[in-house]
Design a protein that fits this description.
The protein is of the alpha/beta class. The chain has eight helices and 13 strands. It has two domains: 12-53, no CATH class; 54-152 and 161-306. Strand 1 (57-60), helix 4 and strand 2 (82-87) form a beta-alpha-beta unit. Helix 4 (66-75) packs parallel to helix 5 (95-104). Residues 17-52 form the F-box domain.
Length: 313
């Protein structure tokens, strides 16, 4: 009886492993990461099977160690479909190493959400690392509470400076700083250089030279940069307390929903131009602290649209 049971178990395992590698990969990519790794305990044939499955979704939530993340990244095959992690404060220094590994694994979707700490100096965010610019296959990029450094200079024989992420369909930056000269132009180039970008979220994004944790805006004008994305379907634009130079430029014919708070340049022609460009969406959420200013803006918009000052607020 024991021999028969062992033979039956072996046959069952052999039958499963006899499936085409593409089918096995598809099975593994549908499982949570923890369950994928546990398949190594099924049998000797499954011991390292998950390591060759391409297109895995790597997600870390709750408690995890830096070694666990590094171990998974070292063993999983390229390309990595997605990497989603909440970076706890004590593990921030490891993020640069993870990014280098992900760039080599040709990661497609990247979500790095840094956690804040009471020990953080005001206005100083944790750094991401330059390896972010080597993740050229990205179609989805989400960054939260971090500082993005200047791109590395081109190496001999590599041509021009960093051009962008041409495969992007979603870009989300929440509480992100790009504290260097030319950062606005870089962000503009990234947005315009992704022809299929459909979802854009920019919340409290600051660009330009930073001194002492705060952007210098008293002595100099902010660097001007523009949002040009003709295939955009969804736009969230919340400017920080100071003008960061970002403006919506060009028509957005496919835009369906917009969520905006741009108090930093209220009452200017730039504000009216931006409102005009997004005013035809199906869903428009506008948050303004100054209600009287909002009333004047709607009067101006109604007049520009219909030639009448009749409106409902």
């Amino acid at each position: 009886m024991e021999v028969a049971a062992e033979a039956s178990g072996a046959a069952g395992t052999d039958i499963l492993l006899s499936l085409l590698p593409e089918i096995l990969d598809d099975i593994l990519t549908r499982l949570p990461l923890k369950e994928v790794v546990r398949t190594c305990c099924l049998s000797r044939g499954w011991a390292r099977r998950w390591e060759s499955a391409s297109g895995l979704d790597v997600r870390f939530r709750g408690f995890y160690s830096a070694g666990a993340v590094a171990g998974v990244l070292a063993r999983c095959a390229a390309p990595v479909a997605s990497f989603d992690i909440e970076v706890r404060p004590r593990l921030r220094p490891r993020a640069a190493y993870w990014l280098r590994a992900l760039a080599e694994k040709r990661v497609r979707s990247l979500q790095l959400a840094f956690g804040s700490s009471r020990a953080d100096e005001h206005g100083v965010f944790p750094g991401v690392g330059r390896a972010i610019y080597a993740c050229a296959e990205l179609s989805n990029l989400y960054l939260r509470y971090c500082e993005v450094p200047r791109p590395p200079p081109p190496q001999p024989g590599q041509g021009s400076l960093f051009a962008g992420f041409p495969r992007l369909t979603r870009l989300a930056l929440n509480s992100v700083k790009l504290p260097f000269a030319g950062a606005g132009a870089l962000l503009e180039r990234v947005i315009a250089g992704a022809p299929d970008l459909a979802d854009l979220l920019l919340v409290d994004v600051t660009t330009g030279v930073v001194a002492g944790g705060e952007k210098k805006v008293v002595e100099e004008e902010p660097e001007a940069w523009a949002i040009r994305a003709p295939k955009l379907h969804s736009l969230t634009l919340w400017t920080p307390a100071v003008d960061n130079g970002g403006r919506v430029a060009g028509e957005l014919p496919l835009l369906n929903a917009a969520n905006m708070s741009v108090d930093a340049f209220l009452g200017t022609e730039d504000f009216l131009d931006t409102l005009w460009l997004v005013s035809r969406v199906k869903v428009l959420k506008f948050s303004v602290r100054d209600r009287e200013m909002m009333r004047r803006i709607f009067v101006a918009l109604c007049w520009k649209t219909t030639g009448s000052e009749n409106y409902k607020l």
